Amino acid sequence: MVETPADVSPHATAHEETDVNVRALKTFLICLVVSLSVTALLVYWQYRRAEALALANDPPPSPRADERTTLTGPGLQINELGDGAEFRRGQEAELNSLAWVSKEEKLVRIPVSQAMEHVAKHGLPKWPAPPAQPAPGANP
Questions:
Q1: What is the reported pTM?
Q2: Theoretical Cys-Cys bridge with 107: which of 12, 52, 60, 102, CB 3.0 to 4.6 Å?
Q3: Is residue 110 part of a domain?
């Protein structure tokens, strides 16, 4: 059991008068803010100085720089989801439309659903047999 002195009442509030040195705390906080501000200004100044040096050391532009043409090939993809959705819409439209693939060969593209119904009703067409290939090792 912990013994308490007889002259201390349980309802008395006891605290130290000198817990924190407020003046030292204020001095520390002021020094901290000043040093952080000075550091930020130095970093900003160094960045601007390095940027100016880099610009000064850049090579001059090519005299033929104006003659450059834009590339017609694939470039960076900016909107992957939108491009994918647009591609998918184009594929769906092509799969669900009627169109001539080749009029000379009488080859037509029909919607997938119609093609499936046609195959279900009439079966697969009879394809011509592939040309005979010579046996391996035979002289051509």
A1: 0.34
A2: 102
A3: yes
